[in-house]
Amino acid sequence: MNNYEIFKKNINKLTNIDLNYYKEKQMIRRITSLMKRNGIDSFDQYYLKLKSDKTLLDQFINHLTINVSEFYRNMSQWRVLEKEILPDLIKSSKNTLNVWSSACSTGEEPYSLIMLLTKFYDLDEIEILATDIDDEALEKAMVGLYNEKALVNLSKEFKLKYFDKVENSYRIRDKIKKHVKFKKLDLLKDPFPKNIDLLICRNVMIYFTDEAKSLLYEKFYNSLRKNGVFFVGSTEQILRPEKYNFKSIKTFFYRKLNNISE
Ligand SMILES: C[S@@+](CC[C@H](N)C(=O)[O-])C[C@H]1O[C@@H](n2cnc3c(N)ncnc32)[C@H](O)[C@@H]1O
């Protein structure tokens, strides 16, 4: 077994993160650059340090999981969601939509969703689930403090209505915050919620191997309700959606089919 294989095993034991599902070349590049930054030149030595140094371990998980996000990332897709997906989805649902932001990072995505949903529902009717593997990202999401850069795509109206300026940052107001339920969930290991109307998984599948992706498409399928919609990231279109019983309804949006002939 080479050193990276042993490192992957040890990291799985230490953090419960299975690096086997992440694209190997990309991961090795990211990890070795972080090792260099810390003056460490072997996987064995790095693992020993990670085991005994919580700050180093947090830095490792943070770097590994790549938390970059922003409000209404790839704006044009959010417009499609608002104008062409949500109206039909809402019409076809008896209750308020069951929405899950499944790799929510520091909260920009679920908060974007809540704000968007206020165009269709009273705020009091909405609650969405937001999950991520990274505790630190989830903590930041719950604090909800963002720099100007994260808000570039945000409308003036939403900025005024739902944020407070705190020195050079913007804090999302509690009236939005309290409608998002944050929870830790590893997409590759944990069971998924059921009966989801709108499932968002954006900008995380690109880091996964093809095997992991197939596994996830099946899990996402089972998590969605009949005719539920799956919203993916910009470079994450499903190659053969029908293989997983999904139908492409717009670029980046898929509907759950109930049988192949639909
Ligand atoms: C680049 S961010 C994407 C954030 C947001 N979805 C967006 O598109 O702006 C990727 C997120 O995926 C999370 N992630 C990585 N592996 C994961 C896993 N196995 N299960 C759940 N989340 C994971 C990371 O912690 C990180 O917050």
Protein architecture, described:
- The chain is globular and about 55 Å long.
- It is of the alpha/beta class and 262 residues long.
- The strands form two sheets. Strands 6-2-1-7-8-10-9 form a seven-stranded mixed sheet. Strands 3-5-4 form a three-stranded antiparallel sheet.
- It folds into two domains: 3-65, no CATH class; 75-256, 3-Layer(aba) Sandwich (Rossmann fold).
- Helices cover 42% and strands 18% of the residues.
- Bound molecules: S-adenosylmethionine.
- S-adenosylmethionine is lined by residues 65-69, 73, 103, 105, 109, 132-134, 137, 186-188, 202-204, 233.
Task: Provide tags for this entry.
three-stranded antiparallel sheet, 262 residues, 10 strands, binds S-adenosylmethionine, Rossmann fold, alpha/beta, 10 helices, seven-stranded mixed sheet, 42% helix, 2 domains
Number of strands: 10
Largest sheet: 7 strands, mixed
Question: How confident is the prediction overall: mean pLDDT?
Answer: 95
- Strand fraction band? 15-25%
Strand order of the largest sheet: 6-2-1-7-8-10-9
Apparent shape: globular
CATH topology of the largest domain: Rossmann fold
Quaternary status of these chains? Answer: single chain
- CATH architectural name of the largest domain: 3-Layer(aba) Sandwich
> Share of helix among residues?
40-55%
Distance between the termini: 47 Å
Bound molecules: S-adenosylmethionine
Helix and strand topology:
Blueprint lengths: L2 H13 L8 H14 L5 H10 L1 H12 L9 H17 L7 E3 L6 H10 L10 E5 L2 H9 L1 E3 L8 H7 E4 L2 E4 L1 H4 L2 E5 L11 E6 L8 H14 E9 L13 E5 L2 E4 L6
Parallel strand pairs: 1-2, 1-7, 2-6, 7-8
Antiparallel strand pairs: 3-5, 4-5, 8-10, 9-10
Helix pairs in contact: 1-3, 3-4
The structure holds S-adenosylmethionine.
The site of S-adenosylmethionine has 20 residues, from loops.
